[in-house]
Amino acid sequence: MPFDGKRILLTGGAGGLGSLIGHQLVAEGAHVTVLDRARPTTYGHFMQHDLGSAEGLEAAAADVAARDWDVVVNLAGIQHFGPFERQSPEHLTASYLVNLIAPVRLSQAVLPKMKARGSGQIVNVGSIFGSINFAHFVTYSSAKAGLRGFSQALRRELSGTGVDVTYVAPRAVRTALNSPAVMEFAKLTHMNMDAPEKIAERIVGAIRARKRDVYFGFPEALFVRVNALFPGLVDGALAANDRKAARLFAG
Questions:
Q1: What is the pTM of this model?
Q2: Which of 75, 84, 202, 227 has the smallest CB count inside 10 Å?
Q3: Which class for 226: exposed (0-12), middle (13-18), buried (19 or more C-beta within 10 A)?
Q4: Do residues 119 and 107 touch, judged by C-beta distance below 8 A?
């Protein structure tokens, strides 16, 4: 699918990965609107909303529903790394709102016009963590797992309507989303982390090709299949790294 003239909504487009994706879409002729708390500095139109509160999300959904979109890219995300019991209630709620409820609600908001037109694409950017659910990333992993399930169910519901659903799952990416503790964990465990430029290019390619499910990275993509069939094997494979992570939060 060529992007020339396409009206694309990109949530989280002011961040490092989002900016790279947005610039590439604009370079290919798309009309990009960024939905974020902060204005992107160098490209696109802007809708300012906070997806981390119920009130902000509903305001965003109303604004989005009032316009016509060819493609919606649900990229915005936040992350907690650490013992689950230490995550604040406020951040826990915001994590599910931004990572799961917002993509679901915004997809719902755009569907009536897409279905009436008989064309459209909803792109949900998840994570390998949504298929291999990591300790110390409990809310992030479980929200992304929900997003993966939502994408599959919605794709089946929309069969024959002309509206496609793409689910993209990168592995860890070197962006500002990663706290210093995450970077220390990555160093301790030799976690594979991809350059954001590479992932932005691959996400745009998946959108262009209107792919269904895309998982980035080896051996992580293989672990996704193994975890689906034999989760106990993955438990064992991850156990040593889980213990290393736990030591970061001892005391």
A1: 0.87
A2: 84
A3: middle
A4: no
